[in-house]
C-alpha cells in the first residue's frame, strides 16, 4: 500500500544528510567533548559547530546563547523553572490556554504544589490571542511569560515579538515555545526582546530526543539538571554528540529549504484545503488563516466528532491526526479546540518538504467517500451515539490513535 505521511507537526522524517552527518559520531568520533585529548577535541569542535548552525537558523547574536537539551519539553520546563528560581519575589506566570502540555502541565503542577498564580490567556474562535486580556495580566508580580510562537494544532502564529516587548515593560522574562515555528519561519532573535526560546530536533527533520534552549546573554539562568559543567553550566551531563551534530545539520538544511517551506509546501497545503472545501460540504478551515504556519491545515468536518477520520485514513495508508484529547474512542475535543469553542471533528494535515502533489491528490481521492460514510453512520442511529457505538458502526474497534503533539 502506498503511504502518505501528513503528520509532520507530530514528527518529521530524519533527513538522510542528517543521518550521514551523525554516523561518524557513533563510530570513530566517540570521544567525550569535555576531554582535552585528541579524541575529545574533534568532538568538542563538532558540538561547537552544531551550536553555530542553530545560532544561524534562529538569528541569535552569540553561539553561547544556545544550550542543548533533550528536546522541547525539557527546554520549556527549564525556562519556566529557571525564571521562578531567579526571581523569587515574583510568583505569577502568564501563558496561553492553547500551549503544549510541556508548558500547561508544568504550570498546573506549580500552581498546585508551589502556590504559583497562573494566568491562561484565552483565544478567540480563530485561535487568536486575546491581547487585552494579556495586557491586563502584566504586573510586576509576573516572573515569566511563556507563550508559543506557533500552535501545534492550528498552526496559528502569535505575535511573540510584540508580546515580549509588553512583558519587558513590567520586568517579566519572556519565553516562547517555538518548537513548531523553528525551521518553518524566518527568525532573527537578536532583534527581539525574547529572552528564551525552546526548539526540538525531531520537528525539523533532525533526530528525536535532542533540542535546545536559547537564553539571551545577560538573562540569569538556573539550570534544571545539576551536575557537571557542560553547556556553560546550563545543562549538566555528557553531551548527546551524535544528536547535536544531527540537529546542527538539520538546522543548516532548514535554512536552505526555508523558501521551499514558505512557497511550495504552502501551496500543497492550500491545494489540499481548497480541494477538501470544494469536494466536501460542511467543512471549513480552523485557526487564523492569515497568521498561520505554511505547512499546517486544520480542517473541521461538521457532523463528525472524534478521531474517526484519521482512523479511516490510516487504513488506506494516510497519516494525519485528530484534535481529540486522548486516544481512540474519545470524542472529547483537545484543549486547543475547546479553547476555540470548536464543537466539530477537526483533522490536522501537516506537510513538510518531502511531500508532493501526489500526496494531496491521494487524500482528495479518498476523503469524500470516508466523510460520507461517517456522516451516514452518524445519521443511522440515535442522535447521541457513544464513541464506542461509532467505532463499532465503522468496524473500528481496537484501532488506536494518539493525541496531537
Ligand atoms: N511544544 C510544542 C508546541 C510541540 O508541538 C511539542 C511536540 O510535540 C513539544 C513542545 C514537545 O517537544 P519534544 O517532543 O521535543 O519534547
TrEMBL record:
Region of interest called Disordered, as start-end residue ranges on this chain: 379-405
E.C. code: 2.8.1.7
Family annotation (Pfam families): Aminotran_5 (PF00266)
Top class in the EC scheme: transferase
UniProt feature, compositional bias: Low complexity: 393-405
Aminotransferase class V domain segment(s): 4-363
Xref: SUPFAM superfamilies: PLP-dependent transferases
CC cofactor: pyridoxal 5'-phosphate
Gene Ontology terms, MF aspect: cysteine desulfurase activity; iron-sulfur cluster binding; metal ion binding; pyridoxal phosphate binding
GO aspect biological process, one term: amino acid metabolic process
Catalysis: reaction(s): (sulfur carrier)-H + L-cysteine = (sulfur carrier)-SH + L-alanine
Keywords tagged on the record: Iron, Iron-sulfur, Metal-binding, Nitrogen fixation, Pyridoxal phosphate, Transferase
Residues annotated as transmembrane: none
Family in the record: Belongs to the class-V pyridoxal-phosphate-dependent aminotransferase family. NifS/IscS subfamily.
Oligomer status and interactors: Homodimer.
Physiological role: Catalyzes the removal of elemental sulfur atoms from cysteine to produce alanine. Seems to participate in the biosynthesis of the nitrogenase metalloclusters by providing the inorganic sulfur required for the Fe-S core formation.
NCBIfam families listed in its UniProt record: FeS_nifS
Name of the protein: Cysteine desulfurase
Lineage: Bacteria, Pseudomonadati, Pseudomonadota, Alphaproteobacteria, Hyphomicrobiales
Amino acid at each position: 500500500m502506498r503511504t502518505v505521511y501528513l503528520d509532520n507537526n507530530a514528527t518529521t522524517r530524519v533527513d538522510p544528510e542528517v543521518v550521514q552527518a551523525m554516523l561518524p559520531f557513533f563510530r570513530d568520533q566517540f570521544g567525550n567533548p569535555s576531554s582535552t585529548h585528541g579524541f575529545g577535541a574533534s568532538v568538542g569542535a563538532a558540538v561547537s559547530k552544531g551550536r553555530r548552525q542553530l545560532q544561524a537558523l534562529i538569528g541569535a547574536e552569540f553561539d553561547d546563547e544556545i544550550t542543548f537539551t533533550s528536546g522541547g519539553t525539557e527546554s520549556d520546563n527549564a525556562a519556566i523553572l529557571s525564571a521562578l528560581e531567579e526571581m523569587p519575589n515574583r510568583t505569577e506566570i502568564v501563558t496561553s490556554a492553547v500551549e503544549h502540555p510541556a508548558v500547561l502541565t508544568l504550570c498546573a503542577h506549580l500552581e498546585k504544589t508551589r502556590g504559583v498564580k497562573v494566568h491562561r490567556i484565552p483565544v478567540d474562535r480563530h485561535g487568536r490571542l486575546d491581547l487585552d486580556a494579556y495586557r491586563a495580566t502584566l504586573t510586576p508580580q509576573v516572573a515569566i511569560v511563556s507563550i508559543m510562537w506557533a500552535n501545534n494544532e492550528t498552526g496559528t502564529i502569535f505575535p511573540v515579538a510584540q508580546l515580549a516587548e509588553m512583558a519587558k515593560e513590567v520586568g517579566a522574562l519572556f519565553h516562547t515555545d517555538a518548537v513548531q515555528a523553528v525551521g518553518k519561519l524566518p527568525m532573527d532573535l537578536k532583534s527581539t526582546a525574547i529572552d528564551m526560546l525552546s526548539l526540538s530536533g525531531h520537528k525539523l527533520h533532525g533526530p528525536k530526543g535532542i533540542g535546545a534552549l536559547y537564553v539571551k546573554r545577560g538573562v540569569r539562568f538556573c539550570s534544571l539538571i545539576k551536575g557537571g559543567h557542560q553547556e556553560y553550566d546550563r545543562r549538566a551531563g555528557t553531551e548527546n554528540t551524535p544528536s547535536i551534530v544531527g540537529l546542527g545539520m538539520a538546522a543548516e538544511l532548514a535554512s536552505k529549504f526555508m523558501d521551499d517551506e514558505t512557497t511550495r509546501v504552502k501551496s500543497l497545503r492550500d491545494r489540499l484545503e481548497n480541494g477538501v472545501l470544494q469536494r466536501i460540504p460542511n467543512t471549513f478551515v480552523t485557526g487564523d488563516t492569515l497568521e498561520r504556519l505554511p505547512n499546517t491545515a486544520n480542517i473541521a468536518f461538521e457532523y463528525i466528532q472524534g478521531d474517526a477520520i484519521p482512523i479511516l485514513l490510516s487504513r488506506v495508508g494516510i497519516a494525519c491526526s485528530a484534535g481529540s484529547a486522548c486516544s481512540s474512542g474519545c470524542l472529547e475535543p483537545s484543549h486547543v479546540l475547546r479553547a476555540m469553542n470548536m464543537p466539530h471533528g477537526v483533522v490536522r494535515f501537516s506537510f513538510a518538504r518531502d511531500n508532493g502533489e501526489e500526496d494531496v491528490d491521494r487524500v482528495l481521492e479518498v476523503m469524500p467517500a470516508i466523510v460520507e460514510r461517517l456522516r451516514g453512520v452518524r445519521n443511522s442511529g440515535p442522535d447521541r451515539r457513544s464513541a464506542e457505538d461509532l467505532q463499532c458502526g465503522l468496524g473500528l474497534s481496537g484501532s488506536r490513535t494518539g493525541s496531537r503533539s
